[in-house]
Amino acid sequence: MSVDIHIKHAVKKFGNKTIIPDLSLDVQNGEFFTLLGPSGCGKTTLLRMIAGFNTIEGGDFFFNEKRINDLDPSKRNIGMVFQNYAIFPHLTVRKNVAFGLKNKKFPKDQIEELTDQFMRLVHVDEYADRIPERLSGGQQQRVALARALVISPDVLLMDEPLSNLDAKLRVEMRTVIKRIHDDVGITTIYVTHDQEEAMAVSDRIAVMNEGVIQQIGNPQEVYQRPTNVFVASFIGRTNILEARLSIRDGRSYLTFKDGFEFEIEGVLEDQMKDQDVLASIRPEDFVLLHGEEKGFEAVVIDSTFLGLSTHYNVTLATGDEVEITQESSRKSIVKRGMTVSLQVKSDMINVFTADGEHNILEGVKNDEVE
């Protein structure tokens, strides 16, 4: 049986150092929920508090309506998958998967049936009699996943499970993990620092920094309307440029340091005033102009061909160096040292207060519990 998870005003301290000052969130029954943030932001600490491996200095943790603060980890009915796999090197795949069932004293025939079922689910049944050292990293991680799922946990906790795999295997395994979650439907909390991974697997993402949740939302919401500069910079790549917001005849305009200006729509009513701002423009939201249109004037520093797209680093007339991404073309004539003109997809950019703390455009969603 899967559960809702409710965390209210959680506090975590190590000695005199506060890691998590006051954190609240709700994870829905059956949801794939990701804690995303840089190293040291508190995401693994929070995961271990949910698991019962870390003490709780403040707040309340609930599985459905049951408070679990003082509940022994073995009584929480959780499955865990770690980055180092944590499977037993001396046991075969079958015995690794069956381990939790034996500990729970399941009947022998049920152990065999469930072990076979979950080995098939993660596609390691053909390796049932192998020991882990004869498996690839991806196969070992599948075994760890089967072992966590076979006990039918209420909650599945995953701590950087793909960080030890190479790039190709990471992509393969995140697809496997998401597909299995969709089939099984267990409430899952997933920890990672990899933004692309988080966006690929998550129903919702909580972006964390220094023990504080910055924003909670689905991948599209967090990417397209980040709540502040930290989220905009951490989720994907972006260029942050200083600008001036001006209001004229009830319409709002962004003016950059080189004088380039365009109209911006959707500014919040209480922010409709002349002010210094920061504009977040993602690489794909620049448009390389080839005609007479005017925009940002830029000099191409270098380019990187990546198949479907080509990435350019350019220096604007403002002195800012920015990254732009364009669809690759056989006929591209953009070369290093060339002066080009750039337009901006104004409906896709984000605008923040000068301190970077608040997005001043409409459409920002944040599910954070106050």
Report on this model:
With 370 residues, this protein is of the alpha+beta class. It is 23% helix and 34% strand. It has a six-stranded mixed β-sheet, with helices on both faces. The chain has a five-stranded antiparallel β-sheet with strand order 13-12-11-14-20. The longest helix is centred in the middle third of the chain and has 18 residues, at 167-184.
Any idea what the CATH architecture of the largest domain is? Answer: 3-Layer(aba) Sandwich
Beginning-to-end CA distance, first to last residue: 28 Å
- Rounded mean pLDDT score: 93
Count of helical regions: 8
Helices and strands, with pairings:
Elements: E1 5-14, E2 17-27, E3 32-36, H1 43-51, E4 58-63, E5 66-67, E6 78-81, H2 93-103, H3 108-121, H4 137-149, E7 155-159, H5 167-184, E8 187-192, H6 195-201, E9 204-209, E10 212-217, H7 219-224, H8 229-234, E11 239-248, E12 251-256, E13 261-263, E14 275-281, E15 286-289, E16 296-306, E17 309-316, E18 321-327, E19 339-344, E20 350-353
Parallel strand pairs: 3-8, 3-9, 6-7, 7-8
Antiparallel strand pairs: 1-2, 1-4, 4-5, 9-10, 11-12, 11-14, 12-13, 14-20, 15-19, 16-17, 16-19, 17-18
Helix pairs in contact: 2-3, 2-4, 3-4, 4-5
